[in-house]
Design a protein that fits this description.
The structure is a single chain. The protein has 4 domains: 169 residues, 3-Layer(aba) Sandwich (Rossmann fold); 61 residues, Helicase, Ruva Protein, domain 3, CATH 1.10.8.60; 136 residues, Zinc Finger, Delta Prime, domain 3 (Up-down Bundle), CATH 1.20.272.10; 74 residues, GMP Synthetase, Chain A, domain 3 (2-Layer Sandwich), CATH 3.30.300. 55% of the residues lie in helices and 8% in strands. It has 28 helices and 11 strands. Strands 2-3-4-1-5 form a 5-stranded parallel sheet, covered by helices on one side. Strands 8-9-10-11 form a 4-stranded mixed sheet. The N and C termini lie far apart (90 Å). The relative contact order is 0.06.
C-alpha cells in the first residue's frame, strides 16, 4: 500500500526535525542528563512537528541504548514502539475523547506499571478540546503522577488551556518552518522520490504552506501524482491559486482604475472554479508585499518569492501610494470577513474591486473621511495667502492672495488673476517662492532659465530619511530630487507628497536628512512635471473640484 510522503519521511530522531532546533536540543540534553519532566506541553501551528517530537521523545526516554539523547531505533523497545507491538505509549485524540469518563479511565490506567518500557507515556493530541470537567479530572494526576508516567500534551490553541494546566507542564513553543528551510526539505524529498521539482515551484509551495511542513509535503505529493515535473503553474492549479499573472493583472486594473478588465478577470477565474475567498486572501498577501516594498528599505528579506517576481513586485508597487495600499488591504479584509459571515463570495469580491477602481462608489466612513480631507486640503490651498510652490502644484488655477484683496478691492482685483495666469504660462518651471511679499516672486522669475540638476545623492538621502521618518520614506519611494540654486525640488507622481511637505514635521525631517548628506540647508519645493497633473486626474472627486475651482469666486470677509 502506498504511503504518503509526510508519513514516509516523518523524522525518526531529533536531528531529523527541521526548524525546531531550540526544542530538540533542550529535549536531548534533558534525556542525556536524566532531567526528564513528568509533563510536557507542545504548542504551535499545525504541521510544525509537535506530534512527531512527542513520539521521538517517548522512544528516547525508553530506549535501551540511547545515544546523546537520541533513540537508537535498533533495540527491541524502539522497534516495538515503531510497529505498535509495545503498548506502553498511548496516543489519545482529545477531540473525540474529551469527556470526564475518558479522563477518569486514563487516570485509572496510570496506576498500572508499564509492561516492557521504563515509562508509560500518554500523548494527548489537541488537548484544548477537553471539556472543563475533563480538565478538572486531569489536574491532580497531572500534578503528582506516578513515577513511571509521563504526559505529553499537544495543542494548536494554547490560549484555550486553563492556567492550572499550563502551570503543571514544561512548555515548548514550536515555530513556523522558515520558507528557506522548507524549500531545502522539499528538494531533498523530491530528489529521493525522483521528482523534478523546480526551484520557483519549491518556493511557491513553501510560501502557501504557511510554515507547515506537513502541508508542503502533501502539496508536493499531490503535484507529483499528476506530473513528475513540478512547475509553478502545476502548483497553482493543484492548490487552487489564481496565479501571479492574474494577481499582477488585477492590481494593475486597480492602479489604472480599469473596473471593466478587473471584472473580466474575476469572471474568468470564477468560471474556472477558483475560490473567491481564496482570491481575497491572495490579494491581501499581494498588497502586503507592495506595502513591504514601499516601507522597508531591505524588503527582499521579508518577501518570500523568486528574484524575478520580487522585481515585478517592486515595479508594480510604484503605481500605488502607501495610503492606497492600506486602503486596498482594508477593502479586501472587509470583503473576506463578510464572505466568512455567509455572504455571496463572488458578489463581495467584485464589489471590492469595483470600489477600488471607482473610489467615489465607496460610501464607507473611512472613504468619506478621506474624500472630505482631500476636499478640505484643496479648499485650504485655494485661499492660502502664500504663493508657495506647494500651492502651485495643489491648485493650478491661481487665486488672488488674501492680503491683496484687502488692500485693493477696486477693479484692480479683476486684473490680478490674468497677470498671475500669464506668469505661470510663460514660466512653467517658475522658481519656488517661500515669502508672501509680491516683489520676491517676480525677482526669482529671472532665474527660471537656470538648468535643474538631478540630485545624485538621492539613495544616501533616502537611507538617512528611513531612520528619521519611515512613513515619509514610503511616500518618497520611487521619487527623484533636483537642485535649483538653493532649492531642493522633489519629483514624484504621488499626489500625497504635497501634503507631507506642507506638514512642518515632515519638512523638518527632509531638511535634516538633506543637511546630514550634503551639509547644505535647502529650501523645499515640488518639481513640476506632467505626471503630477495626470496622477491627480485619477480621483473623480478631485476632477470635480478642479473643474469647479475655476468658476467659483471665493469671497473673504
Amino acid at each position: 500500500m502506498y504511503q504518503v510522503l509526510y508519513r514516509k519521511y516523518r523524522p525518526k530522531v531529533f536531528s531529523d526535525v527541521y526548524g525546531q532546533d531550540h526544542i530538540t536540543s533542550t529535549l536531548k540534553n534533558e534525556i542525556k542528563n536524566g532531567r526528564i519532566s513528568h509533563a510536557y506541553l507542545f504548542t504551535g501551528s499545525r504541521g510544525t512537528g509537535k506530534t512527531t517530537c512527542a513520539k521521538i521523545l517517548a522512544k528516547a526516554v525508553n530506549c535501551e541504548h540511547s545515544i546523546d539523547g537520541e533513540p537508537c531505533n535498533e533495540c527491541e523497545v524502539c522497534k516495538g514502539l515503531d510497529n505498535g507491538s509495545i503498548l506502553d505509549v498511548v496516543e489519545i485524540d482529545a477531540a473525540s475523547n474529551n469527556g470526564v469518563d475518558n479522563i477518569r479511565e486514563l487516570r485509572d490506567d496510570t496506576n498500572y506499571a508499564p509492561g516492557r518500557c521504563k515509562y508509560r507515556v500518554y500523548i494527548i493530541d489537541e488537548v484544548h478540546m477537553l471539556s472543563p470537567g475533563a480538565f478538572n479530572a486531569l489536574l491532580k494526576t497531572l500534578e503528582e503522577p506516578p513515577a513511571h508516567v509521563i504526559f505529553i500534551l499537544a495543542t494548536t490553541e494554547v490560549h484555550k488551556l486553563p492556567a492550572t494546566i499550563l502551570s503543571r507542564c514544561q512548555r515548548f513553543d514550536f515555530k513556523r518552518i522558515q520558507s528557506e528551510t522548507m524549500a531545502v526539505r522539499l528538494n531533498e524529498v523530491a530528489k529521493a522520490e525522483n521528482i523534478d521539482l523546480q526551484s520557483d515551484a519549491a518556493t511557491l509551495i513553501a510560501r502557501i504552506s504557511d510554515g507547515a511542513l506537513r502541508d508542503g509535503l502533501s502539496i508536493l505529493d499531490q503535484c507529483a501524482g499528476r506530473n513528475k515535473t513540478v512547475t509553478c503553474e502545476l502548483v497553482s492549479d493543484v492548490a487552487g491559486l489564481a496565479g501571479k499573472e492574474a494577481l499582477f493583472k488585477l492590481s494593475a486594473c486597480i492602479s489604472s482604475k480599469d473596473s471593466n478588465t478587473a471584472m473580466t478577470v474575476i469572471s474568468d477565474l470564477y468560471q474556472n472554479s477558483y475560490d473567491m475567498q481564496r482570491l481575497c486572501i491572495e490579494m491581501i498577501n499581494h498588497f502586503r508585499q507592495f506595502l513591504v516594498a514601499k516601507t522597508v528599505r531591505k524588503s527582499r528579506e521579508l518577501i518570500i518569492c523568486t528574484d524575478d517576481e520580487y522585481n515585478m513586485i517592486v515595479e508594480a508597487s510604484k503605481s500605488f501610494s502607501v495610503e492606497e495600499i492600506i486602503y486596498a488591504l482594508d477593502m479586501f479584509q472587509n470583503a473576506l470577513v463578510t464572505i466568512k459571515g455567509g455572504a455571496a463570495a463572488r458578489i463581495e469580491t467584485e464589489m471590492a474591486f469595483v470600489k477600488l477602481c471607482e473610489p467615489k462608489l465607496d460610501d464607507s466612513t473611512s472613504a468619506l473621511l478621506d474624500r472630505i480631507s482631500k476636499l478640505e486640503m484643496l479648499v485650504k490651498n485655494g485661499v492660502n495667502a502664500q504663493p508657495s510652490p506647494v500651492d502651485d502644484v495643489a491648485k493650478p488655477n491661481p487665486i488672488i492672495p488674501e492680503n491683496k484683496i484687502e488692500e485693493k478691492p477696486q477693479p484692480a482685483v479683476t486684473e490680478q488673476p490674468a497677470v498671475a495666469k500669464e506668469n505661470i504660462s510663460t514660466a512653467p518651471k517658475e522658481e519656488p517662492v517661500i515669502n508672501s511679499t509680491p516683489a520676491e516672486p517676480q525677482a526669482q522669475n529671472t532665474q527660471t532659465a537656470n538648468e535643474d540638476i538631478e540630485f545624485a545623492q538621492w539613495d544616501e538621502f533616502m537611507d538617512v530619511l528611513h531612520t528619521e521618518n519611515i512613513p515619509l520614506f514610503g511616500v518618497l519611494s520611487g521619487s527623484k530630487g533636483y537642485i535649483r540654486n538653493d532649492f531642493f525640488l522633489i519629483d514624484s507622481s504621488n499626489p500625497t507628497v504635497v501634503d507631507f511637505i506642507k506638514n512642518s514635521s515632515s519638512a523638518k525631517s527632509i531638511k535634516k536628512a538633506l543637511y546630514q548628506v550634503t551639509g547644505i540647508k535647502y529650501k523645499l519645493g515640488i518639481y513640476k512635471r506632467n505626471t503630477q497633473s495626470t496622477a491627480k486626474k485619477r480621483d473623480p472627486l478631485e476632477d470635480l473640484i478642479n473643474q469647479a475651482s475655476s468658476s467659483i469666486k471665493i469671497e473673504i470677509k
